[in-house]
Fold:
Amino acid sequence: MTTDKQPEDRKPQEEGGAHMTFFEHLTELRKRLINSLIAIGLGTFVGVLVAERVIGWITRPMKKALESAHLEQRLVYTHPAGYLNLVITLGLYLGIVIASPVVLYQIWLFVAPALYKHERKAVVAFLGSTVFLFLSGIAFAYTIILPIVLRFLVSFKDPLVVPMISINEYFDLTLMVLLGLGLIFELPILIFFLTLFGIVTPRFLWKNFRYAILVISIVAAIVTPTPDAMTMLVFMSPMVGLYFVGIGVSAVVARRRAKRLAQSEAEAGAR
Structure:
């Protein structure tokens, strides 16, 4: 009987992967960091090569806003090295984006051996959801938010005053809007972890919906780069929708958690 139980006792341990010493962990970590840095370096090289084409894509909403305001569709740089700095900076950002699959894979290779099979599936689902929501936020910001913001900003004009828009300052504004919306779209992931650790419940989120709207309004007022109420409402609308999505996610997590607790209590009672 002892022989029959040994494979079952070892199964969770084998599923979790091989054990490593502290120095083996350091060696493995150094290897993953070096591979990630090499990937980022190569990605940055490629990013610098394609940066000018990406700049054309980034400036498209600004040119459309200038065209709708019947202004000259031209951006300038006010420093001799302004455009070069923009190309290098954008190339670095693009390099990180290009290398992100390799970097995530290196992180996975470092973490996966210590995880059980069900934990690996959870991590893969988490990473997939995080990337999807972040990219969705960037797409929403570029296609909807950014054109509205730019049209509002260039609507203030005077016959004697002509806007001279710096491409570097425009890039900073665009980056703030895109990254801001990308992070805001991670709200369901935040609610997922808060529910997982028992900090919030679906009932709590629904009961305090009014306070959540107040917090969302404050965040939208801070993130919105323009003072008009219309743009602020456009910022708020996806946040409110994501809050309801988060309530649904919280309900699923709470239901599964209650089910696991019931099963563990039943097993303990059977013993």
About this structure: The first helix runs from residue 2 to 15. Confidence is low (pLDDT under 50) at residues 1-14. The CA atoms of residues 96 and 102 lie 10 Å apart.
